[in-house]
Amino acid sequence: MRGLGIVALLCSLAFPPLACANDIAPGGTLRAVYLGSNPAQAVQDRSTGAIRGVAADLARELAKRINVLVELKPAPNPQGVIDAVSSGAADIGFVAYEPSRAGTVEFSQTYMLVQQSFLVLDSSSIRAIADIDRAGQVIAGVRNDSITLYLKRKLKQATLLEVENNPAEIQRLLTGKEIDAFGASRQRLTTLSTETPGSRVLPDTLFGVPQTIIVPKGRADVLTAVNRFIDEVRTSGFLQSAITTSGIVGLQAAPAGSWQPSVPD
Q1: Which of 63, 78, 132, 182 is 20 to 30 A from 157 via CA?
Q2: What would the pLDDT profile of 26-60 be if each residue is shown by its tens digit?
Q3: How far apart are CA 229 and CA 111, in angstroms?
């Protein structure tokens, strides 16, 4: 009983009342889901199954603080993350905030920004972000990615082509000059560029995609606890350490006060 009392005391210090293990992870294990195709969140080793990355580190730290086990699972796309949390199949999820995704879950404050840019051929006249939206140009992005949803709203002159997350096909489209640029996270573009001779990543950034932790709709107590947790790992340096250790290009800890996630209008 004494041990349980100590756990309860620690929980009350770490989180507001009624937002401890029984609230955040009612099943006794923190079930966390992340976007499996996004290395900015986490990467799973194909041979060992080990999962590493910022989202994995944050989920493990949260589970440690509320004294429960953690279970990490990848989802194939952002909607899969949202569906897992909204249906009760997961307790928390890691997904980028985007206005069109709001409604069935609660989004935390932004904990990290993922820089978005474009890959073009070396011979392209596109030298910077300002050159992207021009008449006659075809700009590609993976279907339902944050940058694609953004471009769908913002492109005025260039044509948007939504593609599947198939690196070989994206390479074919770019080298065959069927598209003029491909937009994605800087890490994804860097990897693709090394595999695509004669290509380059633009030096500037379109915007930073706000990464958030989602919880079930209507769980204000859990949302408050998660937001407080983000404040604490930011202040302690844990978040920055996780970002640095991940080795992923183009990540930055979101500044304090990023309470309303948003993308540029």
Answers
A1: 78
A2: 999 999 999 998 889 999 998 899 999 999 999 99
A3: 10
Tell me what percent of the chain is helix, strand and coil, each rounded to the nearest 5. Answer: 35, 25, 40
User: Positive or negative CA dihedral for 194, 133, 260, 217?
Assistant: negative
In angstroms, the CA 172 to CA 178 distance is 8
Q: What pLDDT, in 10s, does the model give residues 103-123?
A: 889 999 999 999 999 999 999
Tokens in use for 111? 């904990």
Chain centroid, CA 113 distance in Å: 8
pLDDT given for residue 259 in this prediction = 62
**2 in helix, strand or coil?**
helix
- Answer yes or no: same fold for 2-112+211-253 and 113-207: yes
Token couple for 161: 């082509």
Query: CATH classification of 2-112+211-253 is 3.60.15.10, yes or no?
Result: no
pTM, two decimal places: 0.80
Rounded distance between C-alpha atoms, residue 64 and residue 2, angstroms = 19
